[in-house]
Write a structure and sequence with these properties.
It comes from Simonsiella muelleri ATCC 29453. Pfam families: DUF3460. The N and C termini lie far apart (about 55 Å). By secondary structure, the chain is mostly helical. The chain has a domain at about 10-50. About 60% of the residues lie in helices and about 0% in strands. It has helices spanning about 10-20, 20-35, 40-50.
Length: about 60
């Protein structure tokens, strides 16, 4: 029933990407900078070791 619905924003973005194909390429490059990153296992180990134990109740005074 509502499967064909697209919001105005989605329609605008789709139309914009059709008119500016270079933006789609740039979008993939930017995604690679933020999301498609390989994690360094040594750094991850250090981050895990640096975590402090969490209190059972945050607002309980010590």
């Amino acid at each position: 029933m509502y499967s064909d619905y697209q919001s105005d924003t989605t329609q605008f973005l789709n139309q914009y990407l059709e008119q500016h194909p270079e933006e789609a390429k740039q979008r993939l490059i930017n995604r690679g900078l933020l999301w498609d990153v390989t994690l360094n296992p040594e750094e991850q180990e250090d981050f895990s070791a640096a975590k402090l134990p969490k209190k059972p109740y945050t607002y309980q005074p010590d």
